[in-house]
Amino acid sequence: MNTTIPSAGISRRAVLASLAAVPLVAIRTGPANAAEFSYKLATGQSITQPINARLEQACLRIKEASDGRLEIRFFPASQLGSDTDLLTQVRTGGIEFLNLAGSVISTVAPAVAVTNVGFAFSGYEQVWPGIDGALGDVVRQQIEKVGMVAVSKAADNSFRQITSASKEIRSPEDLVGYHIRVPVSPIFTSVFKALGASPTSINFNELYTALQTHLVDGQENGLVAIESGKLFEVQKYVAETNHIWDPFWLLGNRRAFGALPDDLKAVVVREFDRASLEQRADVAALNTSLKTLLTGKGLIFAPVDRAPFRATLATAGYYKEWQAKFGSDVWAALEAVVGTLS
User: Fold this and answer.
1) pLDDT tens, residue by residue, 307-333
2) Can you identify the CATH homologous superfamily of domain 161-244+294-338?
3) Which of 41, 154, 318, 323 allows an S-S link to 313, with CB 3.0 to 4.6 Å?
4) Considering the entire predicted model, what is its pTM?
């Protein structure tokens, strides 16, 4: 089942405006005290990503709820460095919290990429029960193995769609020899190689130029990124493949999070859980409204039958390759959610 979450038909501007207007309600009031703990939270997401507004609100609520005992200073949009830099910083304690895509985390904890398996999830009706349940627990264990903790529920980095400047992508055959940009992530490269394409890893901040100069023919991203990166100016077609889903995880430095008293840990988890759930709703609304907006900017959307793509991956040995890389326990957790992949 191809996933489309219904929304109230609100625009991207309305969603972002509503985020800015959300009142911050104090959970507990009291005298202002000097912070016992002063931590930093960084993100690499562009300032217009809903996750930034929701995390900033959570930081303020945490300060209120703790009577100022815990202050978390917020640094969005790569203010403290690139994703790679930030990942190093949270592991070494340079920052205490970091919001990061699972695909990037997998560069240090490879099995975290289990949620990025191509054409695995049929839609959000599988994603959220899985990531909030046993599959999510497996991912958290992988994160903990490399010295971090997943502090809250995962947020939504969206299902990804394929765009093109020159032709519609409707079948696996349309990808044969196709030059497509992918993130710097082995599983992204692998899925497109198995489909016969020629993937090239390019950082997002270089993507617009790569498309404009025809270094690559197309790319794949969620609609929020396609709009915020103005990729509609250099692309024409959108294939609604939903080929990969990627989560955002709020990572904590293990020592710093462990140093918090239990009552403060509970406040942190509660408020960041709330931020993740609110961000999921924001993205659900944007996924529909952005399709209308991007259509108005000239992009042509086309639904895609996902079954032939999944069958091509199976024939190419893609699923068996990643089952061997992840291990039987991790793979079993994925198949318990999405069914047998073969």
Assistant:
1) 999 999 999 999 999 999 999 999 999
2) Bacterial extracellular solute-binding protein, family 7 (3.40.190.170)
3) 318
4) 0.88
